[in-house]
Design a protein that fits this description.
CATH superfamily of chain A: Aldolase class I
CATH class of chain A: Alpha Beta
Strand content of chain A: 15-25%
Number of domains of chain A: 1
Number of helices of chain A: 13
Strand order of the largest sheet of chain A: 1-2-3-4-5-6-7-8
Largest sheet of chain A: 8 strands, parallel, barrel
Pfam family, one (chains A, B): OMPdecase
Radius of gyration of chain A: 18 Å
Keywords (chains A, B): Decarboxylase, Lyase, Pyrimidine biosynthesis
Enzyme class (chains A, B): lyase
Distance between the termini of chain A: 20 Å
CATH architecture of chain A: Alpha-Beta Barrel
GO molecular function (chains A, B): orotidine-5'-phosphate decarboxylase activity
Protein name (chains A, B): Orotidine-5'-phosphate decarboxylase
Oligomer: homodimer
CATH topology of chain A: TIM Barrel
């Protein structure tokens, strides 16, 4: 998907919501387990049916599918297939390895599966990221400042000139690709940093996890990092949307949760 | 596997060789593709049959299996099953995510599959690593200084006190687990750094990729980082061993390549 297509969708739907399909088989409603051969896919299908007009992106957390084994990969493939083609998709995989290995990961997620983007960990540097940038209209979403507690351990490691690791990652990686191919992960749990990072990358999209279960708010994110006329944000909620209900009406409750977030966003779009 | 069992195996075999089963379906001998339903497993099986007395570890690069799709996961599971129980196994996956996601990855590789260890990227800090440390006799192999060109981009980012990121990763992570649960990845392509890292972690095992195809030598590694009476090293070769031949005799040639490395190691063990 191109940058302009993504932007158009955002203003059409008045939403920059990404919904994280981090589906834990132990947390989905029991009637799905009883009734369906592939309850994970059925869960996703109903969530998608009830939210696709409210969000612009689905983020699939690969760990959750992989943990189920072979059946999980099948649920993943079916879910990806089911997502309408005009909605942006993220393989949340946080991969990154030496060149010949990253190339394999790129083939998996961009060739065999048709994700629009993949999250990549920057620790191993340029040649671990480059293979993902060789695919046309596919995106790398590079970890910069993550939403978890451990983000403090290394991402703030600061050099003599006062540049923190996450700032260096953002600065250096801008020489690898432009804002039409690269996004950055910045956790909503660091609202004070959002404005600073927006100044470093005035045009790039930021993928913002950490809204909802992890504590960040849409309003803080929009105020600090929204780009006029381009939005420049995908704000993700996973557990807060998909586990809004735990009964037969789970999909309706996920719609209500998604709508609440979308309406907070609409004020800015 | 315990540290002592690993050490015992190393001195019994006079080898600290890890063989990387990074099997690219496009590079395996054509007669296997023609004859076998699962040519990737057959390739691995023959390599294992011909090398298991010469190495103490097999490292399975998950990217290569994942890229084949569902069949790849089946080849991976069969290969892991086939490796003799007294040989150390590494899921070379370079995972690392927020806690609830890392927990899923840990379940995949330690519960559903029975790997002894997994490689983990440190970028997201302690809570991205901790879930892997909850499994008894299972190991985390944390990326410190990798073997690729891109290792220069961020791993050398140095603070006011002169501490580089890879040094900080090694120092901080020692508070997360002891040398019986944690190893570090240090590329053989940085021989000048091996001695320095050994001084930081006098007892920990180091997993050393980058011998062979990437240019490092066994002799340099052993001289700089070998620990008397504990060895403290797993030196990995992937392409140099498994693609030593490309015909019907590929497994014999892989044995010859493995033996050459093992004999260089034996002088120190």
């Amino acid at each position: 998907m191109t940058r302009q297509e993504l932007i158009n969708q955002i203003y059409r739907k008045k939403s920059c919501l990404s919904i994280g399909l981090d589906v834990d088989i132990n947390r989905i409603p029991s009637h799905l387990i009883e009734k369906y051969d592939d309850p994970v896919f059925e869960f996703n299908k109903q969530i998608i049916d009830h939210t696709m007009d409210l969000c612009v992106c689905y983020k699939l957390n690969i760990a959750f599918y992989e943990s189920i084994g072979v059946e999980g990969w099948s649920s993943l493939a079916k879910t990806l297939e089911y997502i309408p083609a005009d909605i942006f998709t993220i393989a949340d995989a946080k991969r990154g390895d030496i060149g010949n290995t990253s190339k394999m990961y790129a083939r998996t997620f961009f060739d065999h599966m048709d994700f629009d983007s993949i999250t990549v960990a920057p620790y191993m540097g340029v040649d671990s990221v480059a293979p993902f940038l060789e695919f046309k209209e596919k995106w790398v979403i590079l970890l910069a400042l993550t939403s978890n507690v451990g983000s403090r351990d290394f991402q703030h490691h600061t050099d003599r000139k006062g540049e923190a690791l996450y700032q260096k990652v953002i600065r250096e990686s801008q020489t690898w690709a432009e804002s039409d191919r690269m996004m950055y992960v910045v956790g909503a749990t660091h609202p004070e940093k959002l404005k600073e990072i927006r100044a470093l990358v005035p045009h790039h999209f930021l993928l913002i996890p950490g809204v909802g279960a992890q504590g960040g708010t849409v309003d803080e994110v929009m105020k600090n990092a929204h780009v006029p006329d381009a939005c420049g944000l995908l704000i993700n909620s996973s557990r807060g949307v998909i586990y809004a209900g735990d009964d037969e009406d789970f999909a309706k409750k996920s719609r209500a949760a998604a709508m609440e977030l979308q309406q907070e966003m609409a004020a800015y779009l």
